[in-house]
Every structure is written in C-alpha cells, then in structure tokens.
Amino acid sequence: MARAIEVAWKGEGCTGTNPLVGAVLVKDDVELSSGAYSRFGGEHAEVKALRGKDAESGTLYTTLEPCVYHGKTPPCTDIILESGLKRVVVGMEDPNPRIKGRGNALLTKRGLEVVVGVCEDEVALLNPAYLLGIKKGRTAVTLKVAVSLDGRIAAADGSSQWITSGEARLDGKALRNRHHALLVGAGTVVADNPLLERSAHPDLPWYRVVIDRQGRIPSTSHIFGARDLLWWGDKSQDVPPSAERIEPEDLSDLLVLLRERGIQSLLVEGGKLGAALLERGLVDRLVAYVAPVLLGSRGLGFSPSTWATLEDGARLRDLSIKKVGVDVRIEGVL
Amino acid sequence: MARAIEVAWKGEGCTGTNPLVGAVLVKDDVELSSGAYSRFGGEHAEVKALRGKDAESGTLYTTLEPCVYHGKTPPCTDIILESGLKRVVVGMEDPNPRIKGRGNALLTKRGLEVVVGVCEDEVALLNPAYLLGIKKGRTAVTLKVAVSLDGRIAAADGSSQWITSGEARLDGKALRNRHHALLVGAGTVVADNPLLERSAHPDLPWYRVVIDRQGRIPSTSHIFGARDLLWWGDKSQDVPPSAERIEPEDLSDLLVLLRERGIQSLLVEGGKLGAALLERGLVDRLVAYVAPVLLGSRGLGFSPSTWATLEDGARLRDLSIKKVGVDVRIEGVL
What we know:
Two copies of one chain form a homodimer. By secondary structure, the first copy, chain A, is α/β, with parallel strands linked by helices. Chain A has helices spanning 2-8, 45-50, 76-83, 102-109, 120-124, 128-136, 166-174, 186-192, 251-260, 271-279; strands spanning 22-27, 30-36, 59-64, 87-92, 113-116, 140-148, 181-185, 207-212, 229-233, 244-245, 265-269, 285-291, 293-294, 314-315, 317-324, 327-333. The first copy, chain A, has two domains: 2-126, 3-Layer(aba) Sandwich (Cytidine Deaminase, domain 2); 131-333, Dihydrofolate Reductase, subunit A (3-Layer(aba) Sandwich). Chains A and B meet through strand 12, strand 13, strand 14, strand 15 and strand 16 of A and strand 12, strand 13, strand 14, strand 15 and strand 16 of B.
C-alpha cells in the first residue's frame, strides 16, 4: 500500500475534481506493474496496473475503492472481475455517494477476497479536499499568509510588498497549482491589481472568485480581462464581461456554492478575508510563510478576535515545516 | 584559522567575562597541537597550544590577538617570544583597551611575522557580547520570546503557559547558560513565581536582575530566597535580604551599569520588558520560538508600536533556523 500511495502522488495537481489514486499489481510477492490516475478524465489507476498483465490469482493494491459505475471510463470493478485477480487490498472506501462500499461489495460477492482500510490515514492525505468536500458539503479552504515574526501581514502604513523573500513568494505562488480556485477580496485587487494566474495545469479549470460587495474594483483593473471569474459583487455595479455573478448568502454559503460547481479546493491569499474565514471556522489548512522581521504592533494582523484562552487557540495538526530562503514555511491542518 | 575557531568553541559558556579563544600550532604544514581558553581564569589558548612543543620556526594561528599584560596569567606575548615561533596569524585585534594592537605590535617589533584579520567575520561570531560591550559600552541583550503564528505571547486572558512545546521550553532554558544574567520584570515574577535558575556553570556568576519599580513583588516570592540579585525597585519597599539595590536612570543606563559590573550578556525572557527594549533599540539578538497555533488578535503581542513602514521594520541578520519539537526556533541579530 505504501508503494501504491507513492505511485498515486504522481498525479498531484492533474486530476481536477477527481481523487488521486494509485494501484500496484503483485504476484508471488513480486510487483508486476503499477498505475496512477494522472489526468482528469484519463484511465483509472487500476486499469493501468492491470493492462496487458497476467493477473490470474494475483493481488491488486489500490489506495481507493474501485469505481462501480460508467463515468468517463468503464467501471474498474468490471476490469478487475475479468482479470482473474484473487485478492484486492483497498486503502479506503470511496465516500463518493455513487460508490460508497458498492465496489467492494460487488467484488466480495463475486468471490474475491477484499481487504479494506489499510494505511487509511496516509491514504486520506492524498485527497484532503475531496474527502472534506464530501464530509462537509463545501469546498476545502487553504489560507496562505506571509507574516512577520510578530504576526503582521502588513506594516502600519499598509505596505506588505514584500515581507517574505523571493523564494517564499515563488513557493507561495506554486500553491495555486494545488487548488481549483483562488479567492480574493476587493482590497487585494485594488491594492495590487493582480492577474491571479497560475503556472501549471493550463488544461484544467482555474477559477478566480472575487468578492467586491461595495463595488470598489475599477473596471480598468487587469482582472476585468481575465477568464473564469466568479463575482460576488454589488448588484448595481458592472462586472467584467466574462464574469459570472454569484449571490451566496454568506461566506459559508459561498463555499457550498463553489463545491456545487466542482471547485473542491479554494486558496485564499492573506488579507481581511482570511480573518473572516478563520473567525467562522472555515479555514481547513493554513500555510504561513514566517519572515525574520518585526513590523510592530501597529501593523496589520491576520487572525480574528475570536479566541480568549490558550485552549481556545487554533492549533495546527499534520505539521510540515520547511525553510524557504530566509523564511520558514509552516503548514498544517486546522 | 577555521580549525582555531572550531577549537575556540569548546569553551562556550565557560569563560565568564573573558572571550573565547582558540589557537593551533602548525609546523611544516602539519598541526602539532591546539588549545582553547576553556575556563574563566584558566590558561590561555596560546599557552596550551605551545606547552611542551618544539615551536621553533613554526606558525601559531590564534583567533584573537595575544594578550600583553599580566592578568590572572602571564602575558601570552612573553610565551610566544620564548617559543621561537616564526609567524603568528591572528583572527582579529583584541578591542580591549588594555591590548588593542599592542600585542601584535610587540611581536612584530621583536621580529615575528604577524598577519592580522583572517576570517574576521567568523572570529567575531565567537564573542558577540564581548565585542558589542566594548563597542557600545553596555551589556549585550538577547530577547527570548515564545510566540504564536499570529505573533502573540499570551492569549486574551493572559495565559501563556504553555504556547510552545516541552522541547522548545527546554531549549529556551538552555539559553540562560549562554548569558551572564537574566532580566525580568515584576509581572513575570508575580505571575510565575520563578526561581530563575540555570542548569550549567555553577562555578560562574549568574545574576538575576529584577525590575519592580512599583514594589509589586510580594516578599513571599521564591525570588526572595535567591542569591545574586540586582534589584531596581521602589525605594520605599523591602528588597530581598541578599539583593543589591541598583538605581539606573533608565533602561539604557541599566545596561551600562550592568556591564560595569562585568555582566556582558543579558537574557530577557519575553513580556512587556521586551517591547520596551525593542522600542529603544536595545535588543541585539532575538530568539523566537514560533508555535504552530493561532491565539487571535486580542492576545498579547511583544513588539513595540515604533515602526511605520516595511523598511522601518527590524530585520534579523545572521539567521539560524531550527525545528524544536513541533515549534521552530528563529534566531538572529537585530
């Protein structure tokens, strides 16, 4: 299963709204082949691992339960049944309501030995947004902040370019490639006039979600020329011609609405929106680039006023800590 | 010289108010011996390297200029002159007014080849407090803070035990062993009732400097039983029997006064004193333990309100970044 997980990671960022999956075919304790789901709409990992191999009496390790319905590709259960496999070891059940145990049940019913729930914690790390989306019914939110040692994301005069080093900014930009959409507020658009592009996966959808409820963004902004815009704005104001208006009730509703449109993971880059989402418990993952600088108590913070005690405070789990240039990236699950 | 620097570090924390020094004797491109100054009042590095060796026509590498006066030990220049050395390579001139070039000049005058200023930046790192003390005429200040990702050293309710992990707290305690004294305010003493001890160097002086100008510390506090106390208090209040009263004009004057008493390096552990010292530009080194937790905007910060722009902000140099448990230690020179 460790090998299947390793193989699954090959598809990172390329599978769109579908989960990462890895599969390994083993016979007589020898790995015969492996496969990863590595392109949205492409062949499934199980199919790749089995193609052209004599799998008779073999074991297939797969990180996620095999699918049982005709989607963009035929059901993996059919291919497994035809292959002559004796045993299938499944990392975790697929919580997708269209599968949810049906794949495993079918294989068992047809006489295969099926083992479910192997390295489940590690398998879950392959697809946090996919799993969270099904569990909570909303898009998963990552908040990225560039922050000084004293917790400021801007100096007293509002300047924030640049708190962190070039290396950290580049590393931070790459986060966009791990998400389906980017959320920004009017403040960021007015201050930085950004294009909000990303550097990878030109074949996959990439949405910019803009909140501008006071209609502060001038129509001369670069963003007015961008594609794939979802715009939560003031009804009386113009929106970019290519933008689609959205009208959620609140931030929580926005995240439900985005998931319904196939956006499983949303990146939020700093600013006041971060505090608003944190306050409502709507941030699932925090990526903080901590710069070795002090900006003083009059600088702008990014955290809400919610918590009163040490126990209330939001502690990060599943930590990853890495030096990036002179800065430190601290990433974890909230 | 790199080897002499390596040797010098052996004395870290053990040389009291004297600087770390390392020396290496080389003849025909072979290292014959080495020595470090490793105990306050003990033999000098040069003497250790030369003892019992035939140094005739050899070269001595020493990180700091050899001393030229009778202190606790005879002058190193005498021993060098007796040794028959041909050449002395000196990392840096000793800025101590009693030496300051005189050692090098004497050796040159007596026919030795003397090279001064080799790896000077690295040599300077051996003795930052010693050098800063001579340059600025005050004790060198290290501020230690345990801080959340959003820059808080306490939650809104004032609780700060414990923001960081046990590993980080242990690592932080060890900082005391690198300093001559610890400075605390009344707030810390009243809140934590600490003993302010350290774990190493029982043979070297270790001062607790207490500021309690409103006389808030009750005489039942543990600190009233401690030795080596310097107390900047309210004149009308009792001080611990073993304490010596000090009456500096302000924080800046306090640091001058402490240096005059042989305290070259002072550790300040968090709290409001840190902000007051930062505001006055009196912090030379910051050691921040950053914990992966958010405490919210109502928590207590540690930085002053001084700075307005990104350029004003205090950026750390000579960075050292290290994971300590789940926390990150970020250390640098201000």
